[in-house]
Amino acid sequence: MTVEIKVPALGESVTEATVGQWFKKPGDHVEIDEPLVELETDKVTVEVPAPSSGVLQDIKVTEGETVNIGTLLGTIAQGDNATQVKSVSKPEKSNNQSAPKQESQTLAAAPENAPSVKQAAMPPSPAARKALAESNLKAEDIKGTGRRGQILKPDVTAAKATSSPKAQKPSILSKTAVARTAPEEVFPVPSSEMRAPTFPVDTAREERVKMSRLRQTIARRLKDAQNTAAILTTFNDVDMSAVMDMRKQYKELFLKRHNIKLGFMGFFVKACLQALKEIPAVNAEIDGADIVYKNYYNIGVAVGTDKGLVVPVIHDAERLSIAQIEAEIAEYGKRARDGRLGIQDMQGGTFTITNGGVFGSMLSTPILNAPQSGILGMHRIEDRPVALNGEVVVRPMMYLALSYDHRIVDGKEAVTFLVRVKECLEDPQRFLLDL
Amino acid sequence: MSGAYDLIVIGTGPGGYVCAIRAAQLGLKVAVVEKRTSFGGTCLNIGCIPSKALLHATEKYEEANHKFADMGIKVSPKLDLKKMMTFKKDGVKGNVEGVAYLLKKNKIDTHIGHGAILSPSRVEVVPTGKESTPIVLETKTIVIATGSDVAGLPGIKIDEKRVVSSTGALKLNRVPKKMIVVGAGVIGLELGSVWRRLGAQVHVIEYLDRILPGMDLGLAKEIQKILKKQGLTFDLGSKLTGLKSDDAGCRLTIEPASGGEVTRADADVVLVAVGRIPFTQGLGLEEAGITKDQRGYIDVNAQYQTNVPGIYAIGDVIKGPMLAHKAEEEGVAVAEILAGQAGHVNYEVIPSVLYTWPEAASVGKTEEQLKQAGTTYNVGKFPFTANGRAKVNRTTEGFIKILADKETDTILGIHMVGPNVSEIIAQAAVIMEFGGSAEDLARTCHAHPTLTEAVKEAALAVDKRAIHM
After folding, report:
1. CATH hierarchy code of domain B163-274
2. What ipTM was estimated for this complex?
3. Predicted TM-score (pTM) above 0.90
4. What is the second-level CATH architecture of the domain B2-150+277-347?
């Protein structure tokens, strides 16, 4: 019996995926639930498990292909068929590979009269071979005028003249050569994103890598956000003394009690929650002609991974303690680095915090995580001289940036939001009093 | 950067200088780096070209001694070895100057000195001469064409006087009484022939049980038979196990390759001609992270690019036959690839030639290769004894052998021993490059009376219908 392997549901709003590596070859024995193939989606990479035990019979899609939910990936032969299938699948494969080749050879030969002995396919002449390689023409498309139908240089020249002109590889001599044809992309690539032709000598020293689906998604979504929202950034600075003192004082006790390190993120999430409650527009989104205010607070925390930036979401953060928030962030960070973040982990965010400070950023203007309307940028903490009560003192300072969608967040609201965040951080007692 | 080159070629042997010229033709800004004070590499300076000068001159001497009389020419030739060496030197000079002229004509900058790769875009040149300051050249791409060096034998020191490599064998200042050649490859047989013609007793030792390994066995046997008749002696399936040399001469111990009784031999000069190895010393490969295979050949992909983008390699430093013309083809291909064209070398059709007299030449598959691959084929063989021109010239040794696919008649290999076959092999390469059949060759009109008619007759013989046999 044959069992079909199909693309499983990949979570809400995910409709397609790119096929990654197959872990098994046709003919390999597989156990039920054993990972068969990788699928890369906008958000995560998932492994498709074998729906049953047996022998992998057929692979219908190859690495790099785009598939939709329910697309047939391959088949598994169950039970007794299994061994039989194994022997069948091999010749099938070799047929597939050799068939087109043979075909092209016979086509190229084009014998003019029936010869007594089988005549060999005449390869194109040496010059014709080079001309073919440099054109978009195939040997099969050209009628050779040489002996036994051999394609000669003039045949290629003539065929080139009649066929549509096509992008030629740029020569080092002609810098203004025609643009390269678009490589196959998951998303349509606007021509403006196509690179101008380069010198082949330069191309040789470049590395061309296919953008991962995650990277393409990041690129597309960032640009969409910029194209849609009226993004504006407001800045403030915060004296981190109070938070740092508190951390210093309680870090050991906190660790002992909650089994998690007391970091800064917990404070920032809490401070943002405080500000979001006061300025609901920052936690809202636009839906057509409506504004949707959300009375729940799902805070996304941007995490850098080797594949790109991902933003897992702390759901209902307002119900969590600082310890719980810290624990959740730590867990997400670990899973993100291991590539084990699930799609549901990254959905439903209402506001985002991004911390460029860990990399040493002094100041930045974050781009909104659409369709959200606000994103807080944290930066590095450094000792800076500040004037306090008429005196210059050194304080651990951090610049804060709030990028917001000016379509629904007014300047006053944005500034107030950031001031509130600042106040909460400078005086964490406000958390207690809900101020 | 106005000072940066598009391409720097390291080495100006046949691969390097041809690559540089082709690249310059295609509009690239090119420089070459050469460690010798003259261009042309091993081939022009201490390889193909000087050996051909000596082979030509000594064959004339041989003819004057042994063949003129039959033609009614009475002479008593006397050897002036010094003058013969000058003849050789002048020939080399003419050739290397020709390369210098071509480089200049193509506006290629030349840097004499040792080149080392600092990075894919920088080449250091330490100018030849003692107190010189290294210069650094900037470039977009680099082609390594540093060629090969003589392979030695473990425990045997080549002093280029008594124990010589091809380099020393090209400039002996007197004819040795007895010469032992270690290695029955092309170099050993050619240089062995040179000194045999000048009067040396030449004995060839070969580890394998055949001469000319890699060439068609039938051809190798024929050439061995002829060389034997000329006075060369052979010790096949033997290995050199010891060599001592002093002013009195060389004393060798030789053993069967499979082990056994030791025999001793004396010689005035021993020529070690056991092959060549890729030369990449001091090039900075390790620093640049360029990988080589176990035998020292630089790894390249189908575009001749090493594992380091922007750095390419051609010729003897990469795998394949160590032949000047193979390097040239690769030089052209890589230059065209760099210029955005489709550069390609057809390794199925690379001729190889042995410049003894008579000569031997091959292109395509040998019978042994076809048998091993299980290909069925027809053989068309035609001896020069049946060729009119060869007969009147009394150069009737040898044959032409064509191997054609049994089913399709496509020519798979052509092997020849005979007069001037180094020239005749070109038409074999052309027909094979076009994928031609034996019948195509048989139906091509060949001029009469010429030696090339033997090719046509061999093609006819594939279909068992040779006219003159």
Report:
1. 3.50.50.60
2. 0.73
3. no
4. 3-Layer(bba) Sandwich (3.50)
